[in-house]
Amino acid sequence: MKVVTKELKVSTSSRFQLVDITREVERVVEDSGVRNGLALIFAPHATAAVVLNEHEAGLIEDIIQKIAEFTEPGHSKWRHNIIDDNAHAHIGSALFGQERVLPVVNGRLVRGTWQNVFLVEMDGPRRERSVLVTVMGE
User: Fold this and answer.
1) Helices 87-96 + 57-71 axis angle, to 10
2) Which residues contact 128 (CB under 8 A, 6 or more apart)?
3) pLDDT tens digits, residue range 18-73?
C-alpha cells in the first residue's frame, strides 16, 4: 500500500471564513499516484474545521452566519473566554470536525457534483493554517 502526505498552507482574512481547497486537494491526489484508496483531509487546529459543501457565494455566507449564530462568539458564559476570546471556535471545531475522508477511485478524488472541500476558519484572520492531505491505497 502506498501512503503520501502533503501539507497545504492556507491564509485567512476574516474571523469566520470558508476557504475552498478542493483544487489543491485534488492535485495532491493526482500527484500521489494512488489509483484506488482513500484521501484524508485534516486540519491540525483546535479552532478550524473541514467540511464539504457547495461553493456558492450566498450559501457560503449562510453557512458562516449560522456557524456564528450557533457558536455565539463573545458569549459571556463561555468559561474559556477568560483565557482566550475564542471559545466559540473551539466549540465549532469540536462539533464540525477537523477531518473528512473521501474515496479515491481511478486516481481521482470522489465527491458529489456540488461537494467542494473547505477549510472553515473560526478564529481568524490567520496568516497560516495547515491542512494535511494523506492519500493511501494502491
Assistant:
1) 120
2) 9, 10, 11
3) 999 999 999 999 999 999 999 999 999 999 999 999 999 999 999 999 999 999 99
